[in-house]
Structure formats: structure tokens, C-alpha cells
Amino acid sequence: MLQAIQGYHKDQENHWVAELACGHNQHVRHDPPWQNRPWVITPEGRTSMLGHKLECKKCKAGAPKDNSLTITSA
Q1: From CA 8, how far away is CA 17, in angstroms rounded?
Q2: Preceding omega of 64 cis (within 30 degrees of 0)
Q3: d(CA 59, CA 37)
Q4: DSSP letter (8 states) at residue 31
């Protein structure tokens, strides 16, 4: 199920996590060659992806909403 990115926060290991419209969180790492998301490494890149839809596996699984941390868009 596609869900829009509404904001971001960093986890305990300093990795970026997207906050999705459905209430779930999803890591958005730039870790080439496995994950190629260079937009994650700059504030401008993250801001440009607000509203972009990601596939939410937690929605498909019927998982409850995640507890949100402070949302940071930059």
C-alpha cells in the first residue's frame, strides 16, 4: 500500500526514518549499492520528497501505528 511521506526523524542510531501518512515509520537510508537514496543525505533532498509515496509493508500486514518521535523535515 502506497503511503505519503509527511516528515522525518532520526532513530537511536542516527538513521533517517520517514513518517508516513498511515502512521507507520520506515527507514530511508542511502546505503549504496543496496539502497540508493541520495536525497536522504541533505535537508533539501528530504524536503523535496515530502508527499512522495513509499510502499508500506506494515499496512499490508495490518500492523498498529508506530509511536512517533519528533518530526524533523530537514
Answers
A1: 5
A2: no
A3: 22
A4: B
Per-residue cell: 14: 542516527
Domain positions in the chain are 2-61
Summarize pLDDT for 32-52 with one digit per residue, the tens. Answer: 889 899 999 999 999 999 999
Average pLDDT value for residue range 18-37 = 94
Q: What is the model's pTM?
A: 0.85
User: For 26, which DSSP code?
Assistant: E
Q: Which residue has the cell 524536503?
A: 47
From the centroid of its chain, how far is CA 8? 6
31 is written with which cell numbers? 546505503
For 32-54, the DSSP string reads TTTB--GGGGSHHHHHHTTT-EE
